[in-house]
Design a protein that fits this description.
mainly alpha; Rossmann fold; 6 domains; 5-stranded parallel beta sheet; disordered N terminus
Length: 804
């Protein structure tokens, strides 16, 4: 069939991909079966794509089709754009600019340039290309500086743009690499050399350059300027003298001249790794696309399975989306699978080396790339940079001050130090937290700083400084975690969690005194509880108890209470009972009334769940209530009321249970503790279910979700959703109930938590009822859909379902 006969007519965008695929398959002389075999797809899959049944194929699938069809560049671009729902004309090379009205002789003229040929296509930078192009072609802009960390792809992006701008600069586009230049006095000679000018006679070279450029329309691409910023004055002079010239400069820090427009370049985008992502989303991620293309160039038979794509994404995430890191990692595909790379990337820098002879020496490893920026810093900034690398979770001003080397405090203000490191792209400024600037290092850069710190004599003292700072944060947070101030403190602890983990790890390993880790655990265990870090919390709590080796301190007693509560929440009642009994004994031994009251409070819970002994539970609550009353502990009294409501409900005294539950809710609102409030609302909902008031119960379960989500307690959110499922069953909405149970299951499974012990009977009754109400296929489908749904969406669906 001739190409003209196969050319598609105009179709809606949703149909263009299928039509293009059919055209290109016919042009290649392939049947659907042939193409399916070559691309590793099914014939039915090819048929569905061509008929428009599937209108949004994964880009990994598109790449397979491109290779199987052996498409040229224009057709590859057209097919890819169609897959993304973008309009395209397959008869024109859309990767080139539209035809110019000035005629073919202009378009095909050999333009003056010395741009190096690029071996690989640029990936994931379409937006940046468009934005910088628009900026550079504005009449009021003559200098754009692309700034970014080493390895972020500044040079590659600039070269791609320079190639695209060849027709815009009729007098030439010239590349001036400054990486080999070590002295700022050599910048002008290097520029002159790039322009083909000779430095002869006694005329100043600056005048020669300005005279040669004059009013010509020229683009100068000056690469790697960061170590030669003293030469920026000459750049400014050229720009002010030559009205038509444009400069595109790459540098890890801005030049600081008046004419400059800075364009900060971030690493390649990564999707949110904390949320489950479909493999198609990961495959389309620019970082993964880059990895696949570079790896496929080395290993053409590379398999694009779901497991491989997920491992490739993890590799890209581990190197922070830095293109250089991704390319160096992809080069390892010769000997390592993507999964093996993930396993080895715990130590990034030694792994990401390359012996490629054509790579600049500074790019042989990421270490050399980062060292390039580090060596440009004054000694004070070098010292601070290495000390700041101790923070795995980023830091604010107060944290930075805590590790600063004191004899140098007077030399520069901390803001100046940090600004310098940000300018060199060794630090990234994050979004402010409560108005405080936050800084972090890309992990690969931080590892370099840690290596330098370990080679110095400062590591031990810096560790101690950071531990002191973490301890001060936890001491301030601890008393507020059961009050109205809990949200900002929970957010602060979450933000500092990686830093806290580091200090606890040093304590566990014997690098810090055990009392530090014990104190941190005693102060922040409610954070772990509220944010459902149950397994991690227990590991730290038990580890610190073992390291402490003494039962005499108040922190030990608090940690025993904490690990008892966490063990109960993991359904390990036996261990919980042991820890609480030990805490009670120590509380009596040292006259610690707070420990006694807390131990009795939680033992009352165990008496119900483990022994089904309501009388014993009530006795424990009486003792706890007396102490909380004496100490005027409103939170403690609220907890007692909440437990008393449960006991009353289990006795069948539903009116008493409702009264006690409502009092607990009132007291928790007074203290501001959202966990206690949500917990008590769920309890009240269960009480209302038992007296056959499902709509009233549903209101309590729904009301519980907001405070529990505010504090980040996904486990207890799952309790509220499971309770709401029971309400849906009672109201005759089994499919909605299945969705809610599926969502509750997903939340629990994500954090490794069991069904909350006291709720197990409700949960099992709900499952049994659903299995009788729905056919197996519908039951499984409802649960599965719930796994993929957001709680707020299901709550809206529940409300709409009972309103109809």
């Amino acid at each position: 069939m001739a190409p003209e006969a196969a050319r598609p007519t105009n179709h809606p965008l949703g149909d263009v991909f299928g039509e293009l695929l059919r055209v290109y398959r016919i042009e290649a002389g392939l049947s659907q079966e042939d193409l399916a075999e070559k691309a590793g797809l099914s014939r039915r899959g090819i048929s569905d794509l061509e008929r428009g049944v599937r209108r949004a194929p994964y880009l990994a699938t598109v790449r397979r089709l491109v290779l199987a069809l052996q498409l040229d560049r224009p057709r590859e671009v057209a097919l890819t754009r169609a897959a993304r729902g973008l309009p395209t004309d397959p008869t024109r090379d859309i990767s080139s600019p539209a035809p110019s009205p000035m005629g073919a002789e202009r378009r095909f003229r050999t333009l003056q340039n010395n741009l190096p040929r690029q071996r690989n296509r640029l990936i994931g930078r379409d937006t940046e290309l468009r934005q910088i192009r628009q900026l550079l072609l504005r009449d009021d802009v003559n200098l754009v500086t692309i700034t970014g960390a080493g390895g972020s792809g500044k040079t590659r992006l600039a070269l791609e743009l320079a190639h695209q701008l060849l027709e815009e600069f009729e007098d030439g586009v010239f590349f001036v690499p400054l990486a080999p230049v070590s002295e700022h006095a050599r910048v002008l000679p290097t520029i002159a050399h790039g322009l083909g000018l000779l430095d002869v006679g006694n005329r100043p070279l600056l005048e020669i350059v300005k005279s040669a450029l004059g009013e010509k329309r020229v683009l100068l691409l000056i690469d790697n300027f960061e170590h030669l910023r003293a030469a920026a004055v000459s750049i400014a002079d050229i720009l002010s003298s030559c009205g038509q010239i444009r400069m595109l400069i790459t540098s890890r820090a801005p030049l600081g001249v008046r004419e400059e427009h800075e364009f900060p370049l971030s690493p390649l985008a990564l999707v949110d790794s904390m949320r489950p992502q479909h493999v198609g989303v990961l495959a389309d991620c620019p970082s993964v696309v880059l990895f696949v293309e570079r790896a496929a160039a080395i290993q053409p038979e590379l398999e694009l399975s779901e497991d491989n794509i997920r491992a490739m994404f993890e590799v890209c995430r581990r190197v922070d989306g830095l293109p250089l890191g991704i390319e160096l990692a992809a080069a390892r595909i010769r000997v390592l699978s993507p999964q093996a790379m993930v396993a080895r990337l715990s130590s990034r820098l030694p792994f990401l080396s390359s012996d490629a002879l054509d790579r600049p020496p500074r790019h042989q490893t990421l270490r050399a790339t980062i060292s390039w920026s580090y060596d440009l810093l004054p000694e004070t900034d070098q010292n601070l940079f290495c000390r700041l690398a101790i923070f795995p979770g980023g830091f604010g001003f107060d944290a930075a001050e805590s590790v600063r080397k004191r004899p140098w405090d007077h030399e520069r203000d901390m803001l100046d130090n940090l600004s310098s490191l940000v300018e060199q792209n060794l630090l990234i400024r994050d979004a402010d937290l409560f108005g405080e600037p936050r800084f972090r290092m890309l992990e690969t850069i931080r590892e370099f700083g840690l290596d330098r710190l370990e080679m110095s004599a400062d590591l031990e003292s810096v560790r101690g400084c950071m531990a002191g700072w973490v301890l001060s944060i936890c001491n301030a947070a601890g008393p507020s975690l059961r009050t109205a101030e809990q949200l900002p403190w929970l957010a602060r602890l979450e933000r500092e969690h990686d830093n806290i983990r580091a200090v606890l790890g040093w304590t566990r390993d014997g690098l810090l005194d055990a009392s530090i880790g014990l104190r941190i655990c005693a102060m922040m265990w409610w954070f772990w509880h509220h944010h459902s870090y149950l397994t991690e919390a227990r590991r730290w709590l038990e580890g610190m108890l073992a390291a402490a080796g003494s039962d005499s301190g108040a922190d030990t007693r608090e940690v025993l209470i904490a690990v008892g509560v966490i063990a109960f929440n993991q359904s390990d009642d036996s261990a919980a009972a042991g820890y609480l009994e030990r805490a009670l004994a120590l509380g009596r031994q040292y006259g610690d009334q707070s420990t006694i009251a807390q131990a009795r409070l939680y033992q009352s819970v165990l008496a119900v769940s483990r022994e089904h002994d309501l009388d014993r539970s009530s006795t424990f609550l009486v003792e706890a209530e007396r102490i909380f009353d004496e100490t005027r502990d409103i939170w403690g009294i609220a907890m007692v009321r909440s437990r008393q409501a449960v006991v009353a409900r289990l006795r069948g005294a539903h009116a008493d249970s409702r009264q006690l539950g409502e009092e607990a809710i009132r007291l928790f609102r007074e203290t501001g503790d959202r966990f206690g409030l949500g917990h008590s609302l769920v309890g009240l909902g269960h009480n209302l279910l038992e007296i056959h008031q499902p709509e009233a119960a549903a209101k309590q379960f729904i009301a519980a979700v907001e405070p529990l989500r505010e504090i980040g307690n996904e486990w207890f959110v799952s309790r509220a959703l499971a309770g709401l499922a029971s309400s849906a069953i009672a109201l005759g909405r089994p499919e909605v109930a299945g969705n809610l149970l599926g969502c509750a299951d997903e939340l629990r499974e994500r954090i490794g938590a069991p069904v909350y012990g006291p709720d197990r009977a409700y949960y099992e009754r709900a499952l049994e009822s659903l299995s009788k109400s729905l056919q197996l296929a519908k039951f499984e489908s409802a649960i599965r859909e719930g796994h993929e749904a957001a709680p707020e969406d299901l709550i809206r669906w529940f409300r709409s379902s009972i309103a109809t």
